[in-house]
Amino acid sequence: xxxxxxxxxxxxxxxxxxxxxxxxxxxxxxxxxxxxxxxxxxxxxxxxxxxxxxxxxxxxxxxxxxxxxxxxxxxxxxxxxxxxxxxxxxxxxxxxxxxxxxxxxxxxxxxxxxxxxxxxxxxxxxxxxxxxxxxxxxxxxxxxxxxxxxxxxxxxxxxxxxxxxxx
Length: 167
Hints:
2 domains; 0% strand; globular; 9 helices; UraD-like
């Protein structure tokens, strides 16, 4: 796909959701200028990540907070974005036992109480046991380390989404 031929409105409509509820990333990438490199998922990802990484901590925290809990209330209510729904379903988070749902709720609550933002993990290709183990491990991180980890996971999620979009 030749993304550099898209208008700003079409570009943002197509790529504005790559970073969860944060079209400012796509807007910034477009405004910085699209090149032949941005016609590949990896090149477009690099351009978008550069915009994300240039943001101040407040904007990055808002980006992190735009993500839903894993196996949380939004999923139960059917209110996730289509991308988040596919990603969580691919990891089996839409088919939890009552005990698993309780454990995810406990971990989501503990994580948010400790760090002040939701646990973020690129769950595509992962299973429930791997996700729970990561949850438990990452609860031992300090705030700065976990903030950086959350952003690194957002980068992984966005690349997977761009690759899916490219087919």
